[in-house]
Structures are given as structure tokens and as C-alpha cells.
Amino acid sequence: xxxxxxxxxxxxxxxxxxxxxxxxxxxxxxxxxxxxxxxxxxxxxxxxxxxxxxxxxxxxxxxxxxxxxxxxxxxxxxxxxxxxxxxxxxxxxxxxxxxxxxxxxxxxxxxxxxxxxxxxxxxxxxxxxxxxxxxxxxxxxxxxxxxxxxxxxxxxxxxxxxxxxxxxxxxxxxxxxxxxxxxxxxxxxxxxxxxxxxxxxxxxxx
Length: 206
Description:
Keywords: Nitrate assimilation. The protein is mostly helical. It is built from 11 helices and no strands.
């Protein structure tokens, strides 16, 4: 278990979560924890600066616009691999199974179990090995999210880069390389939707 990776995952979980007053109060803690490791804080610097400098209601509106309503920034890992297909129910079940096997009650707080901030927090605080296995399994989802954030010039992309850098192997050069690596193809059993394209994610809540 790497203390540095734990800190990166916990800070990533917080920085990718909906901003509220509690999160703002954690910014100094994140800065101090990340500063223990050379180069770590730089990946989070711009997001942390924005959290401190942006009025809370404005930050919340920005988060909803970019993460709840943007198809390119979906934070649910299985959206990228399974879309809204029948298979996705089994995938979500695998996340729940991992949580149950850790013998710790994981409060999903109304979110689906593949919500990236939840997976990162679980990895950092509950079961590092099991959580890391989920991150490795869904590495293509992390990479596709990263490219979406990079394409729209959002500073959270550097956080995804830092998270991906903790996992085995080099990051693919572009989105097409990610899709080739993962063997993505349109699922054949779509439920009320056109065949899934990972670049056209379903809008959360739609």
C-alpha cells in the first residue's frame, strides 16, 4: 500500500465531488497532505485555487454544468464501458459486491456504486487492494474521462492524469487508442437507446 497513492485518491475523491462548505474547509488539509510528496500538489493546484477563489454558488453551478450535465465528463465508470445496456446492471453489482466483501458498510449516499469519487474514497480509506483493482479494471474509463476533461480545458484533467499514473502501464496517446486497448464496441442490447458510443454519454438524470 502506498501512502502517496492513498493521499492522491482521497484528494481526488474530494476534488471531483460536488463542492459544498465542508469541501472548502478541506482545502488546507489537501494542500498539506499533498505537499508531503514531491510533485503531487501541482496536479491539484488549479482546482484547489479555484475552490478557494470562486463563490460557492458559482462553483456549484459550474460543477453541475460540467459533471452532471456533460456527456464528456461522466463520473460513473461503467457509463464509459456499458452505457445504458442490460449488462450494466451486472457491472454495478460487481461494485456492490466488492464493497460488501470488505466487511465495511459503504454509504453510497444515493449515488450509483461506480461513482468515481466514491471508488477513490473507498480505495483510500476502506480497502486499498480491492479499490485499486476496480481502478485498474476501469482504467479505460479513467482515460476517456481524462481526455474529455483535457479537450474542454478543465483543470480536473491533471487530477485524472495523476490517478492514472498510479496504475500499471503507460496511458494511451488518445481516445482512439483507449478504445482499441479496451476493445470497445457498441453493445448490442441497448435498452431504449441507440447503440452506445462512448463519446455520446447519456446525460445524468435524463
